[in-house]
Each structure stands twice: as C-alpha cells, then as structure tokens.
Amino acid sequence: MKVADAPNEAAAPSAPGPTTPKARARRLSMPGGRIVIMAAAGVLLAILVAFLLNRPVKPQSPAFEPASNPFAKGIFANGMIESAQSSGSNTNIFPEVTGPIVTIYVKAGEAVRAGQPLFAIDDSVQRATTEQARLLAQGASAQLAELKAQPRRETLAVAASQLDEAQANLATLVHQRDKLARSAAVDPRSVSRNSLDSAIDAAAAARKASDVAKRQYDLTKAGAWTYDIQNQAAQYASLNHAWEADKALLAKYVVKAPSDGAVLAINAATGGYVSPLGTYDTYTQMNVPVAVLGQVATTLQVRCYVDEILLSRIPKGGHIDAEMRVRGADYRTPLQFVRIEPYVVPKIELSNERQEQVDLRVLPVIFRFPIDPKFRLYPGEEVDVYINEQ
Length: 390
Known about the structure:
Shape: rod-shaped
Structural class: alpha+beta
Radius of gyration: 54 Å
CATH class of the largest domain: Mainly Beta
CATH architecture of the largest domain: Beta Barrel
Distance between the termini: 114 Å
Number of strands: 17
Number of helices: 7
CATH topology of the largest domain: Elongation Factor Tu (Ef-tu), domain 3
Strand content: 15-25%
Largest sheet: 6 strands, antiparallel, barrel
Order of helices and strands: HHHEEEEEHHHHEEEEEEEEEEEE
C-alpha cells in the first residue's frame, strides 16, 4: 500500500510559490504592493484625524461674568465715570495766551489748591511789552506831578527878577522924560523937540514892558493851567490802565488752578506749543485741553447717556434705581440718582469730538457712587449702566 501510494504523493500539485522571507520581500517590492501599503496608511491616517477632530473639546470658562440686566425691566445706557461735580463735568484747562510751555509744576494724580500754578508759558515778549507800558505810565505820572508842582521856585524867581528889571527901567526912563519935560517948560530952547518925544516914547514902551513882566510874573506864580493838569491826568490814567492790562495779561502766562481739586491729566510737555484751543494730540490728531482737573472726594459720579427712543421709559420722580457694571471685571455697584440734565444732545464717541458723532441723540443722566478702596476706578472709564423702569 505504501508503494502504491508513492506515485500519488509524487503527483500531488506543488505550492503556489515560494514562502520564504526573501520571496515575500520580492512580492512587496513590486508596484502593486507599494500601492496597497500607501492605501492602508492613508486609511489609518484618515481614521486618526477624524477621531481627533470629532473629540469633544471642553469649553473654557469666561474671563469675567458677562453683563446682564439685573432688573426685570431695565434700560441700558453707556456711562462715563467722572469726578463728582455740582454742575458740569471735569474742569478742562485752556490757557488764554499762546506760546511754548517752559515749566510744568504739577503731575497727574496730584492734589492742588485754588490759585496753585499748574504750568507756565514763555512770557518774554509780553514781559518786555509790560515794561514798556510801565515806563510810559511812569513818564506820564512825572509830567502830571510837574504840572501840579508849578510854579517852580527857580522859575518864579526869574520872573520876579524880570519884573524888577522892567520896573527899574521904567523908573529910569520916566525920570529922564520928566527931567526933559521940566527943562523944556523952563526954556523950550534947552531941549530939542525930538529928544523930548523920544524920552516920552521910551517911557511909554518901558511901562508896557513893565506891564508884560508883571503879567508874566503873575502867570508863573499861578502855576499850571487846570485844563493842562486834567489833560495830563487823563493821559496818565490811560497809560496806567494800559500798564495794568499788560500786567494782567502777563499773569496769564502762568496758568493756575481755578479751584481745589486733583490733576486728572496733563496733555502737554515742556516745550510743547499751547493756545486757547488747547494743545495738539498726535494720537487723536485733534486739540485737547492742556490739563484736566477733577474734584478730590470720597465719591465719583457716572454720566450715562440714555437713547432718545427710551426717554419715555425713564421713571418719573426724584428717585431712580440703577446699577453700574464695569466692563472686563466682575464688579457691580448700586448707583444713587443725582440729577437729569434736561437737554438732549448728540451722542459723542469716546474721543469726545463732534466730528465723530453718530446719528443719535441722548439724554445725560447723572448718578453717584462711593469710591471702593478695593476696586480702583478712574474718571474717563466707560461702564454699563442699567436703570430700573419700576
């Protein structure tokens, strides 16, 4: 049986091909094998990418609590923090003169008293003009004093001497005339008619000269004419007023605090040019106040602007509930109603320039809140205000 089966085993079909590692490597190195490997790698990569993209991502917690209306029916308004004022808002300082700043005496955040210098402007030209006006007024004053001091003793002495001389000359000529006249009366041939007439004329001329000298003496003794004194007094008053005006203008080159407060901002540097329009800000490219002053107090106020279409929803009466939220922080505080400024104005953007106004009008409503030492707020900061409609 074993012998008979041998031919069958020999005739059995052979395996499909070599199964050694070298043979398999040869098969994989063929073009068809590489394509299969690349396709499989692409499928695995697609599965990995789909897994990573579809994996749920845990949301990050917000940096601060989003603002929400604390009232069931509330009006939202944008607000601007400012120092507490009985009227108006912060005090903007504009100089009344022009020129470069030479000295800045204060810094932002510093408390100042009324009349304290804030900054000084170059006053070299105005100082010279003021000195010129002072000298003119001084000269007019001296001329007025001279008129009031007349007659001058030396001048009166000269006039008296001239009068004495004229009277002495008159007495001499009168004596000579009378002598010739008596001689002619005794013997007409002793004196010529021409000599007698000349003596008479000389005596008459001497009398006139004596009268003139007497009048001149009286005029000198009387002093200056009252109208001359009044005219000179008016000129002195005019020049003195001009000097006072120049001194007042010179004082404006040192800008002082109009009231007690705190320096919120100094918008110019030494050497910067300022004018009654303020100073040019290179960042906003517009004119801004040279300095801004606020009140030093334990409270601040917020000026919120209510849209004109919401004005009918503002509660009537002297009590309005409101709450303020600070953007970017989990901070809120109740507000105390101060006043409504009953004049609807165009809404102004943060630059506070009318050129940037939008097509909207708003009503300013003022609230007050105490300063929290644990959370610092600054005038000029924008906040959200919610007003309870009640």
